[in-house]
Structure formats: structure tokens, C-alpha cells
């Protein structure tokens, strides 16, 4: 009997096994749409970024002007630029929902997939930070200065590392040029990691809301999830296009429309909204090195979740106290985001410090409450 | 007319078509099965969360009110709507204000005369505007720089040759470039309008240095720019009465255009996008539902093995 080409062709069968015949749990919800949406975000960013790179000049004397040139003189340059800037925000919205879903339904038990996922998260954060520096506005320059200076907290080597990264004694032309190079390069590394993320995911298959083994009830990816993903993609693209065409600069900072000036420090230096929670954690620690460690740990702590959360059921929906903790954590992250945009003055300082403690406390108390609930339910 | 519509539709219009749906939804609700304790607990959590949110909001507002700087009031601009274009007559008047008042100190380095064509001026008018300027060009065949009348491709001239000259002429203050000024200030065009019309005497205790003026909307209150707009400070070519607020409104609209020249195209594209995406989303939603209908309506039966 002749086999179908899609199952035999060395190249097509890879696509077939990932997008057509892939056995998928029948009960995965819309929360499982965000993986494909992240793939779409990455593609949008790479494509719009490629077009922007054709006109952008990574030089301190020309960067700001070249972005203005893109917006004013290049055909639909304003659209490409604002799609790229707002696309970054949507990338992070999808990332946070994707990670939140992973924590809620314990998708971290797919260990390799989770570990690569957290690494992708780090890489995307780095890429977004590097990209924000490129327009060379006031917030670009001062954001780069503040964040790169954090490395000076490293004992003994700090100052040398910072100057090595700057390529000089201040954030200057060499810094901008290398930031552009890395901003261009990293998305391709992220793409490679995404392929690995999917490779490991397809070894086991997706998790599902019940957290049970779903081999008894799987359905082919196509047509069910191809159409569901296309619908999700359309909805997300609509929101992205709506934001871009209605209020393109709503999520940006007005200071970034002022060309970078090393002699004038903006009154409030703050990163883009998606980094505000981490920025609030950084500022909450009075010691510089402590703040940097807390900042890194606020994300790196995701690496240890699979090892600390051992429980009898997979999904948080079966753990009422943990459900409450999860949504408290959500509120804490929202409030930290709010605190990150506030000036460093009372009562925000104390509020930020309390929220930082609560943020890390979640990772401690959550596994304990899982154990407590398991004991209550299975107590003989 | 209303009577005809009533006769055609009969009483159908008076009935809510959603009654069966609402009944269906309410029968799906599980809240009636909650115990009293659960209701009390969730109610308390809800009230606490709401109270905490209100407290935080009040806290935020109270701290904001302690600022020394006055925030500009929000105005309803004719271009504020989701599908509203800029008022092009106002943009043209704003250009006149810029040319006659602002251009003496402020540059606008990202706007060329060609940008005016089809927006505020016809091609001939824009050419005439450009030709009023003498632009340094060259070198010519002898290797010398020369001056020539401006062309459409020339950018608006800068009042000063460099930043140092601008500072020297303005008591040390540097008049910012106005191309992006609306985007570069919190409050956008509301801020510009409030700043231009908000000059007043300094309150007791505020000390101003020589060459400074008081404006509550400017961060810190002390501004080096004198009040520039007064009633009848200039005459509009279209005969509009040039009150100070009219001048401020027109220059704010013009500066909105200089910051976002794509403004009108963007909103036209938004209208198209909403239409296209609504159609595509409806189609894909239908197809998705249709594909899943087999799965959603299946019956799973458990039949134990007969012994």
C-alpha cells in the first residue's frame, strides 16, 4: 500500500507530525492558544524588525533621526514601527498568560519544555530591553544607563564588566551599535529555542486542564486546533492592529520623543510596562547587589518550581487554597507593576517592599499548601 | 413612520428576544448551590478586595494632588474621536501661527514644505511658502556655497545655526524643536494648549529669576518663554478672529499634525481594519464551531466487559 506523502516525505512529515496528525488532548482550553500566539508574535516582530533594520542607522548621531525618517518618509514606515513597538507589548501579554497557565495547570512537570521556556523568557526580556535602546530617545539612553549599571554591583568585576558591555566609559556609540547587533541576533536564537521547546513538548504531548494522562482521548491537531489557533491569531492580531491604529503611542513614554541627552536626566526613569514588576522588585531592596539578585531571582525562581511543587493532582483547580494563592499572586504582580511606575517616595517604597516579600513568599507557601491539602484529602 | 414600523414588526420589537437565553444562563449558575458559609466568605473577600482597591486608588489620588505642578484639563478635540480626522482648516491656521509667532525661536527640523501639500496647502501655495526662504546650498561648480530660494523638498529653516546660538539668544534656555513636541509631553495637545493660555502672575513665595515667567503648567512653574499668544496678536488669512484661545487651539492642532503626520491615514486604516477583521473573525469563529461540533456533541458511553 502506498503511504501518504505527508507521512513519508522527510521534510513534510515533520510538519505533519507537528501541525496535522499530532495527537492533542481533546479538552485543552483557550488558555492553550497562547503558545501559537507567541509564535505569531515572534514572527510579527522578526518580519517588522527586518523592514525597520533596512532603514535604521545604529549611530548616536543618526539613530533618532532615522526612526523619525522611518515614520515620516518610508512607505507605511509609521505602521511598521508602531506594529513592532506594540508587538513587543503583545508578546509580553501572551508570555505572561502562557507562563501563568503553566503555573496554574502545572505544565512545569514537562521539565525540559519548561526549562527551555524560562530560558526563552529571559532571552525575550533581553531582546526587548536591547530594542528599547535603539530609538535613542531620552528613556532609551537613561534606561540603558540604569540597567547596564546594575552589573557594577557584581563584586570585584562589576566595573570592568560594565565598561566591557558599554565598549567605553559611558553608554555611547559603541554601546548602541552592539545593542543593535544583539537585538538583531537574539530573535533567531529565540527561534531555535522555540523549536527545541516544541520538540520536547511533542515528546510527551500537551498537558491538559485536568492534568490527567490524556492518551485515551486525543484528537488530531488538524482540523480542530489549526482552526482554533487561526481564530486566536485573528483575535490577537485584531487587538494589536486596533491598538496600533487607534492609540499607537499609548504604551510608550513621551520622554522617548526627546533625543537622548546625557546631560539631562529625566525626572522619572522607568522601563516599559512589561518590566515594571521586576523594576519594582529591584528598587525595593535598599542594597544595590541585593536588588540585582532579587531582580534576577524574580524570573529565575521559575526554574525551581518543578522541583518544589510536588503534589498528587496536577491542576491547581483541585487545590482551593492554592487557587486563592495563585490569584493573590496575580494581584501582587499587577500591584508591583503599578508600584514600578510610581516615584521612589513614601508610601510607595514600603508598599513595594511588602509586595516584593509577598511575591517571593508565594513560591515558598504554594508548595507547602499543596502538601497540606494533599494530607487533608488523603489522610487515613 | 413609527406607526408603520410598529405595524410591520407587530409587537415583536417590544419583546426582549433574549428572555429564553437569560433563563438558560440563570439555570446554569451554580451560585444557588453555595453554602451560606461560602457565600459569606466570598462576599467578604470581594468586599475586602474592593475596599483595598478603593483605598489604593484614593492613596494614589491623594499623593497626586500634592504635586506642585498643575495638570492640563482634558479638552474634546475635533480629532479626538476614533474615526475623526484632523481639522485641516485649523492645521492651516496653526501653520500661520507657527510661521508668524513660534518660528522666531523654535525649529521644526522634521517637517519639509512638501509635507504641507494636500494637508494645509495646494502644491502652488506650498511652493510659494518655500520660496520665501533663502536656503544655503552647494557647493556649485566653483566649489562655493550659495543661497537659493527654497524648494518643496527643503525642510523648515531653523531660527538659530546651532544650540549654543539658541541658548545665547534666549538667556541660556534652549527652545525645543517642535516637530515632536505634542508626543514628547505628558498630556499632548492638552498640555500645549494649557501652557500657551496658562500664564499668570507668580503666587507669593515663588521667586523667578530675570527673564523667567510663571506658568503653573510648566514643570517647576518657572519658564523662560514669555507669553506669546494674545488676542489679535496676528491676523488669520481666512478671517477667523484671532483670539488667544483660537491661536492656541490652532497651533496645538498643527503641532499634533507635525508629531503624527500619518494621523488621518492611520484612522482611515483603522476603519478598514475593523471591517475586515470583524468579517474574518466571524467566519473563523463559525468554522471553528462547526469543526468542533462533532467533538462537542459526542456521547461517551462506558460499557463494562461482560463476565
Automatic annotation (TrEMBL), chain A:
Pfam families: Cytochrom_B_C (PF00032), Cytochrome_B (PF00033)
Similarity field: Belongs to the cytochrome b family.
UniProt main location, coarse: mitochondrion
Record's subcellular location: Mitochondrion inner membrane
Gene Ontology CC, one term: mitochondrial inner membrane
CDD domains: cytochrome_b_C, Cytochrome_b_N
Protein name: Cytochrome b
Subunit-level organization: The main subunits of complex b-c1 are: cytochrome b, cytochrome c1 and the Rieske protein.
Residues annotated for heme b b562 binding in this entry: 84, 183
Binding site for a ubiquinone: 202
SUPFAM superfamilies the record matches: a domain/subunit of cytochrome bc1 complex (Ubiquinol-cytochrome c reductase), Transmembrane di-heme cytochromes
PROSITE patterns the record matches: CYTB_CTER, CYTB_NTER
Keyword annotations: Electron transport, Heme, Iron, Membrane, Metal-binding, Mitochondrion, Mitochondrion inner membrane, Respiratory chain, Transmembrane, Transmembrane helix, Transport, Ubiquinone
Cofactor note: Binds 2 heme groups non-covalently.
Species of the source: Acanthoscelides obtectus (Bean weevil)
GO molecular function, one term: oxidoreductase activity
Membrane topology: Multi-pass membrane protein
Residues in Cytochrome b/b6 N-terminal region profile domain copies: 1-210
Cofactor: heme b; heme
Binding site for heme b b566: 98, 197
Single GO biological process annotation from the record: mitochondrial electron transport, ubiquinol to cytochrome c
Domain Cytochrome b/b6 C-terminal region profile: 211-380
Annotated transmembrane regions: 37-56, 76-97, 109-134, 140-167, 179-200, 230-251, 288-309, 321-341, 347-365
Keyword match Lipid biosynthesis: no
Function: Component of the ubiquinol-cytochrome c reductase complex (complex III or cytochrome b-c1 complex) that is part of the mitochondrial respiratory chain. The b-c1 complex mediates electron transfer from ubiquinol to cytochrome c. Contributes to the generation of a proton gradient across the mitochondrial membrane that is then used for ATP synthesis.
Automatic annotation (TrEMBL), chain B:
The Cytochrome c domain, residue ranges: 89-259
The keyword Electron transport appears for this protein: yes
Entry's transmembrane regions: 40-59, 269-287
Database matches in Pfam families: Cytochrom_C1
Principal cellular location given in the protein's record: mitochondrion
Gene3D superfamilies from the UniProt entry: Cytochrome c-like domain, Cytochrome c1, transmembrane anchor, C-terminal
UniProt feature coiled coil, ranges: none
Keyword field contains Transmembrane: yes
InterPro entries: Cyt_c-like_dom, Cyt_c-like_dom_sf, Cyt_c1, Cyt_c1_TM_anchor_C
Subcellular location: Mitochondrion inner membrane
A single BP term in Gene Ontology: mitochondrial electron transport, ubiquinol to cytochrome c
Cofactor requirements of the protein: heme c
Co-factor: note: Binds 1 heme c group covalently per subunit.
Signal peptide boundaries: none
Binding site for heme c: 102, 105-106, 225
Keywords on record: Electron transport, Heme, Iron, Membrane, Metal-binding, Mitochondrion, Mitochondrion inner membrane, Respiratory chain, Transmembrane, Transmembrane helix, Transport
GO CC annotations, alphabetized: mitochondrial inner membrane
Gene Ontology molecular function: any one: metal ion binding
PANTHER family membership: CYTOCHROME C1 (PTHR10266), CYTOCHROME C1, HEME PROTEIN, MITOCHONDRIAL (PTHR10266:SF3)
Function: Electron carrier protein. The oxidized form of the cytochrome c heme group can accept an electron from the heme group of the cytochrome c1 subunit of cytochrome reductase. Cytochrome c then transfers this electron to the cytochrome oxidase complex, the final protein carrier in the mitochondrial electron-transport chain.
Family: Belongs to the cytochrome c family.
Complex and partners: Component of the ubiquinol-cytochrome c oxidoreductase (cytochrome b-c1 complex, complex III, CIII), a multisubunit enzyme composed of 11 subunits. The complex is composed of 3 respiratory subunits cytochrome b, cytochrome c1 and Rieske protein UQCRFS1, 2 core protein subunits UQCRC1/QCR1 and UQCRC2/QCR2, and 6 low-molecular weight protein subunits UQCRH/QCR6, UQCRB/QCR7, UQCRQ/QCR8, UQCR10/QCR9, UQCR11/QCR10 and subunit 9, the cleavage product of Rieske protein UQCRFS1.
Protein name: Cytochrome c1, heme protein, mitochondrial
Species, as recorded: Acanthoscelides obtectus
